[in-house]
Amino acid sequence: MHKTRLAAAVLISAVAAAGTAGCGGSSHPSALTGTPTDIADRAYQALGSAPSVTMTFTENDGDAKSDVKLTLDAKGDCSGSFTSDAASFEILKVGTTSWIKMSSETALIGLVGPDKAHRAVGKYLPLADHPNLASFVKACDLKSEIAAEDRPDAVTQVGTTTVDGIATAEFKEHDSGGDTLTWVTVRGAPEIVKIQTPQVTAYFSDYAKPVSFRAPSAAEVA
Questions:
Q1: How many Å apart are CA 137 and CA 142, to the nearest integer?
Q2: With contact defined as beta carbons under 8 Å apart, do 8 and 77 qualify?
Q3: CB–CB of 55/67 below 8 Å?
Q4: Assessment of whether the complete model's pTM goes beyond 0.90
Q5: CA dist., res. 143 & res. 191, Å (int)
């Protein structure tokens, strides 16, 4: 995977400022088979086709830190939270409608103006009313974006370890941006548990766990 894409996805929270648990895993008892490249490819394909997944990211470039947690389904619905040194907010997408919710009146002033900001605190703002924030909804396609990344020709297995109590194999990919480490379940169909790049650490859990997303009521919308 190209690290720039993964880091850019996580840095959505920084754009806003300017404007785990175990993996579900398969119950099949067989161990991983195939070359490291083949196993890694299958794991990324499984991520892209998962009915649902929860992803937790931490991005730290030395100057600023951002934390992101997203739960997504295969339809593109999602909910999540973004926290950075500068701002924090939540996003929600149900069907074709998306919302953002902020708890900071200061951050909201730049979006809705000082007269409306205090009434919008803790309320959902329809993104259709704020086209400058439309890029946030792209986060709901994040698992497909990661899974669709160009894969390197050379992947090596560097060992085995346990991540959040899950037995995993650790794989390393190298390109001009530095090493990407990927931890994949060793039993059953390979599933990604963790990805680490020079600036980003991401955890993946709750593959295929039933999820539902509810549109906010009128009283919850600013």
A1: 10
A2: no
A3: no
A4: no
A5: 13
Name the token pair of 179: 């090493």
Q: Please list, in sequence order, all residues whose beta carbon lies within 8 angstroms of the beta carbon of residue 63, skipping any fewer than 6 positions away.
A: none
Chain centroid to Cα 26, Å, comes to 21
Backbone angles phi, psi at 115, to 5 degrees: -70, -35
pLDDT over 90 (residue 69): yes
CA distance 62 to 15: 17
Nearest to 65 by CA among 204, 201, 205, 203: 201
Strands in the chain per DSSP E? 52-60, 65-73, 78-84, 88-94, 97-102, 124-126, 155-163, 166-175, 178-185, 192-196, 200-205
For residue 107, report the phi and psi dihedrals to the nearest 5 degrees: -65, -35
Domains of the chain and any CATH numbers: 3-19+23-209 (2.50.20)
Question: How do residues 127-182 score in pLDDT, each as one tens digit?
Answer: 888 777 777 677 787 777 776 666 666 789 999 999 999 999 999 987 776 788 99
Strands (E) in 74-154, as ranges, are 78-84, 88-94, 97-102, 124-126
The distance from CA 28 to its chain's CA centroid, rounded to whole angstroms, is 27
